[in-house]
## 1
Amino acid sequence: MHPLLAADLERLPDLLEDARRHAVAFLEGLDERPVVPLARTPAAVPLPARGDGLSAALRGFAERWEPGLSAGAGPRYLGFVTGGVTPAALAGDWLTSTVDQNPMSSLDPAGQLLERETVGWLRELFGLSDGHEGNFVSGATMSNTVGLAIAREWLGERLGVSPAEDGAAALGPVRVLSGSPHSSVAKTLSMLGLGRSALVPVATLPGREAVDPAALERALREGAGPCVVVANAGTVNTVDFDDVRALVALREKYGFWLHVDAAFGAFAALSPAHAHLVDGVDAADSLCVDLHKWLNVPYDSAVQFTRRRDLQARVFQNAAAYLGPLGDTPEAVHLTPENSRRLRALTAWLTLRAYGRDGYREIVERCAACAHTMGEAVAAHPGLRLLAPVRLNVVCFTLAENPTADRLAALAREMSDTAFLTPTVYAGRPALRAAFSNWRTTADDTERVIKALTAAVDALPGGAPAS
């Protein structure tokens, strides 16, 4: 064994304790850390020919890279839709690396069995029936990819071909209809060989991001052949929800594949006040849920569900002498693009075991309350305009006067020490989004964000208009 490896192995308990202390110091400093530090790029250094052990490597990381890291795990990182890491999920992530399991084969079954139990817990958490079977994937993009790959095979089933065997060209022209699809849907269609042009936009309801069911029916009636409909349970800009029950009724009439992108909107099911938003989602043919959002587990983690595991295995089956057959319960290696990966389910299992449905209901309801508080503050400020109702956990707003992308970027930079907001465009207007999904975020954090936002608006050239 190399002497540095041997020395680190001998001192491993002490070195892990050093890493623990470093992690605790980072977490304890989140409240005072700039949420997004000013850009700082360390000078490049060459790969060392001779290392100097873990202790020196930890010091090098702390000196060169840690100062530029955001407080993404903290309570005022409101960009994108980003959760933090619950204490149980953090412990789960450390244990995941410690046990270093590849849960893809029944020849070494414990990890795979743990994942199946966790998928069952998640199915129950989101109010899904046993008709849905699921697997862990890396994120919402891959969850959408798996769901739409199954949909592609379903299209082939209707046409008497198998894209998995014959290629996507065997399908001929394909239509994928959606009102406000996430950008990952077009990316997925490109990867699946269906093409970005297969995505057909459908009109949304006035002033909404939710698809207009009447417009969708016209598109279904006018087209030929089987198609796919991508419904949204929580759009990125305004957390708008398609009327999935209405779409299910249309499916009965027109016979399409219904994929629901519920990356973070699925968590509305945990709150009695918001559960109506996801009515009908259980009827989906495939479903996307992202776990490193509101479940607050570390990157990367998501789950995909489908009612057609037989088609899923047809797409992703992997033949090798060392793998088990498909059978009635296919191994995980036959169900997603990856042949090997880490035991993603352990972080989810531990945090669900630790905090249960009630703990996650409280997180969802607290985040929603924080979003509503900020939405009310934005609506009351003369220099700001709320662009959509706060339906769940996202506040979408812009400047009342001269809302250019540059001015909004300057506004976000001005408050970046206190909070991180991401830019967007809604209804043709440059805007900012604040997404509340971190388990640490409290009413006090929300007040800090509101004060920082008010000060940043006043600091812009021209300031706030007179009320």
## 2
Amino acid sequence: MTDGWNARFTPPPATGRSMPPAPAPPHGQTQHGQTQHGQAQNWWSDALADPWRDPWAPAQVVVPATGEGTGPPPEPVTDPDAPRRSLVPVLAICLVTALLAGGLGGALGFLFAVRGGYQTGVGAQLGAAPAEAPGGVNRSPDSFGGIVQKVQPSVVTVRVTGAIGSGFVVSEDGYVITNDHVVEGGDDALSVSFSDGSTARATLVGRDPESDVAVIKVAKSGLVPVALGNSDQIAVGDPVLAFGSPLALENTVTQGIVSALDRTIQAGEPGGTTRYYAAIQTDAAVNQGNSGGPLVNAAGQVIGVNSVIRSVGGTDTEAGNIGLAFAIPINQAKRIAGDIIDHGKARRTVIGAEVATGNTSSSGARLRSVEPSGPAAAAGLESGDVVTKIDSHVLGDGTDLIAMVRKYAPGTVVAVEYRRGSSTQNASVTLAADSN
């Protein structure tokens, strides 16, 4: 037994074929796969002289002829017996992905169609109505829709003999604030209706004609009062909503902004009560029937009582909204309503002087007379003085002074600027309640 280094090949028995001669190595090649310069060549370059090679094997080793340059690389040979990768997993993944994409797209399409109010298919062709959402439609509490859902159940339509107005619940035991001109003449025939369609009888608690505020009481349990805001903290440009029953259209809501503050107005029928307002002006659509309804801020709080409109119509029946509506500030309405509930009547705030109204030769409120023991006299004002400002609000005439004084509660200290002759002076006046 040897390691084969010097083994010799023993030819098989003669079969009629001769053993092929061993070819000489190519030029410059040794039998150990190296060039004469010692650089390695392809491992098969001495295959024909390999003593272990079977010369009778059907396959032959062909050594390409040596030439200039290097020929193209041999083409890769694929093993026919190598196992092939299956396409089943790839097809399965593609199928699952397509099914998921189709299902998701269909679900999103259906959702968008339902939210957009569209109908498709046979139902749309037959005019089938879309299904209503259970429990109604809810809105975010700070949206206009959310504010309406919060406030509307507390707003009432006030019915009197031959007239209609609005109001709003301010206590759980049934007190409702409205306008004096809404309930005027209807003491014994008052009723209210709510947004849910229910109705109830109402009785008059009290009224203050000059401020145009009245209080009625509703005989119904389970009432939800509105939230009252602070009318001293609003600003021009704030968004507002006006609630009421304009032209007998119950449960109406309109939207606008605060257009102006302390807009002084004198209103009333000839021969009747003269009413004074230092009002919140708004461009929210307000018409006849809105009177007594709430003006609400973006927080859902009542900041005013809708009371008066300015119109180009010749008569009350022709009057309509032109974007000029006026509301009593809620701070004033709340104070007067509290006086009515607690005492049966409201205290009227006065400055202790009689003023000239209408057109005057100079701007400001001229004092015709001053009560000796009144607030104006105590502050040093005299007959003939012209009050030009009250709490920085510029006065045009006596109506402005009366309306502004009515806005404040008795006991309030206000800064007054007045003109005496050619000099301008200032004083602090402590307003008081009248003795009536």
## 3
Amino acid sequence: MRFPPEWVEWDLIPDALAAIQSTGYRPGHEAASEHDRHGAFQWWLKRDPSHATLILLARVSWLDPDQHMAGYVRQCIARHHACSAEIRHALDTPYARV
């Protein structure tokens, strides 16, 4: 599904999300894996994530191989009721692996 490794490193794929992702997987979905990753972002946003998780989601969006989809996700995060100045900074500042 081409998730950047930070999804796992930062514990952004809990068991409940992994179950949904694996249940919906069909061979050949790799060609449109951005749909799976977009679904994972939206799964988080529907669960009222913590401030720290929103920052991680903003950062991992910058690492996504589909920046068109990731840009839309950043817009969704920016509209989240808990979006703060710190989260906006993470949304506006491309994240690079260290």
